Amino acid sequence: MWVAVMMWCVTYPLVVFYAVRLKTVFANETGLRIRGYVNEIEIPFSDIASVRHNWFFKNDTLFLSARSAFGHKILFIARRRVVTERGSISTLDMLRNLIA
């Protein structure tokens, strides 16, 4: 019983820390609209340096060239694929194309 309580006390703050850092990201014609729990900002595609996938935590990171209200790195969990007029495409590939 004590082992379970100790594991919960260690794990819970880590999960909360990870969850609070995640943001909601929407793409539109001019850039990305990023929503946190309180703030919502829009970042043009020209301010995005790169996007990278983290296979261990199954999240994605936007690296910005200019500091925003959320910092230089923005964590989010992307959909695997998006359906467009030209067919199905990976979300990260779509973001990389919009950034380029």
How would you characterize the overall build of this protein?
This protein is of the alpha+beta class. The protein has one domain (2-99). The protein is 29% helix and 45% strand. It has helices at residues 2-21, 91-99; strands at residues 24-27, 31-35, 40-44, 48-54, 59-68, 71-76, 81-84, 87-90. It has a 3-stranded antiparallel sheet, with no helix packed on it. The protein has a 3-stranded antiparallel sheet with strand order 4-5-6. A hairpin with a 3-residue loop joins strand 1 (24-27) and strand 2 (31-35). The longest helix is centred in the N-terminal third of the chain and has 20 residues, at 2-21. The chain is globular and about 55 Å long. The protein starts with a helix and ends with a helix.
Please describe the structure with a list of short key phrases separated by commas or semicolons.
single chain; 100 residues; alpha+beta; three-stranded antiparallel sheet; 2 helices
In short:
The protein is an alpha+beta fold and 100 residues long. It has two helices and eight strands. Helices cover 29% and strands 45% of the residues.
